[in-house]
Write a structure and sequence with these properties.
A: Arc Repressor Mutant, subunit A; Arc Repressor Mutant, subunit A; two-stranded antiparallel sheet; 9 helices; 4 strands; 44% helix; 12% strand; elongated; C: mainly alpha; ScpB_csome_segregation (chains A, B); cell division (chains A, B); WH_DNA-bd_sf (chains A, B)
Chain lengths: 190, 190, 276
Amino acid sequence: MQPETIEQIKRVLETALLAGSSPVPVSDLRRLFDEDPGSDLVRRLLVDLAEDWQGKGVELVQTAGGWRFQTRLEYQVYLDRLKQERPPKYSRAVLETLAIIAYRQPVTRGDIEDIRGVVVSTNVLKTLESRGWVDVVGYRDTPGRPGLYATTRKFLEDLGLRSLTELPPLTEIERIMDLVDLPKTEEPAV
Amino acid sequence: MQPETIEQIKRVLETALLAGSSPVPVSDLRRLFDEDPGSDLVRRLLVDLAEDWQGKGVELVQTAGGWRFQTRLEYQVYLDRLKQERPPKYSRAVLETLAIIAYRQPVTRGDIEDIRGVVVSTNVLKTLESRGWVDVVGYRDTPGRPGLYATTRKFLEDLGLRSLTELPPLTEIERIMDLVDLPKTEEPAV
Amino acid sequence: MTAPLDLAPLVDVPNGVIGRMYGQPIFDLPKDLYIPPDALEVILDAFEGPLDLLLYLIRKANINVLDIPMVPLTAQYLEYVEAMRHHNLALAADYLLMAATLLEIKSRMLLPRPSRPEEAEELDPRAELVRRLLEYEQTKLAAARLDALPRVERDFEWVGVFVAEKVVERLPEVSLHDLQLAWMKIARQSRLKQHHTIQREELSVREHMTLILRKLRGDAFVVFESLFDPALGVASLVVSFLATLELVKERLVIITQNEAFAPIYVKRADGAAGND
């Protein structure tokens, strides 16, 4: 079977995306065909496909790693009824640590502790690492060579983000600080 | 969101089935809804859905474990292209043996060994025979009555040849090879 | 600790007014600041640390973070810490460290202010605390927003339908190029060197030799003419004939004729009942 019409190429794209267990970038989608249809056509058909799926319980979205189908949020209430186990609910400690890593990466455990004002338990970082959301991307060249944590592509994908710039903006603390002009220097030796 | 119309119930069924790769029994599908639509309706809608998906690259099928969407076999050729794995390669011994049989058939194992200058292991010939590319077409009337190997029709088909005469003539190869002058380690001892 | 906790300034209390905040009189204590002692353990669990607790006290008392009244805040914080210690709750060192920090800031604020105003602003001992509080609050908000983002498996699912596959062993692919290369390797190093050129004609003959051998499967004599298919044309007939001669020359077939003009028979020279 050789796809000859645009409609057939679209079918193949749809099938590959429905079957995909991970997001597929356009470059990979082009490899589906014996004869490369080119990225322009593939992109156009993807937009077409996304439109075809309007009104369905599943939508075609673009995430960090490429294109993939996912169920619409409104349908989760149904899908939840079939689930054997609840998805994990993360503690504030886990979420705050994740937020610090996401917005200030790369950061060491010490950096996280400075901001949160408490010791960060190993479990908190393990939870995030085993979910595949953060990992150590390097080591800071200070005593102890602490690991530098950053978020992964899976983190972006699991939250439906294409890049870190799509994270919700931080509340504008800087502006407030500027207004009062608070010093960041050391305390004077009184 | 509470499904009110038959159409909405169908959407929920479709979404639930698209979200998972394992078969879902009708009894589970009924649990998707706050109010059980009953197995008759669910079954009817599943048959409806299967019809809706006619002509797509994915089909709704009923298996022993229940219903599931799966890709149609005709699309395997495309999906396979996305797999990263490289196809396996035959060893040099297999390829050379095949070349000798192709160009010099019918030949005995002894002939092949004479030409290659090394013993041909049984595995090499077994590999080619089990692939259906060579077989024994007779026996030479010499001591031991060695089998005469020749290539099969399947060999021609798999390599896209109509006849052995379409094999590249070796004089030409020789010319090209001499021109290119491949960096060979072993020079011929002539 | 039975009295409600009170963050309002402890001075200058007119009738009914329990304090002043930025010039505005305060008449009521914030009710939610009162926490029964037996709930302390729960409270300790509820807070993520001293910064979280401080932020809670400040926000609940509706105090501007940028202008923290250190005396009452420190007092209240210490009351918490004392109560926790009193109930033998395992108190993280972070809470004690913060207590020390608050006390230090408070004492420094009691020192005479420097004369130059701009310096006074610069040297506000609360600055570092404020910075940390704001940064922590920002983190808290960010964490809540991250948690609110739709997340796979909680708010949606990936679609991944079953991939139907014929179970086929992946077999190595061989191209004509592979065969050429293989032959060249042989040619370059074998005794075949001197006569390794194979022409199309020769191949054609060899192909027909194989075809004839296939027709001769089995033990029986085959009528010579049946090896040839006139429908394939003269060229094919000639090649088939050459192939037969070559087979005879290589002693792969036997040709017999009992007498002149009698039928010619062909038989495989090995005479066995074929292979397989």
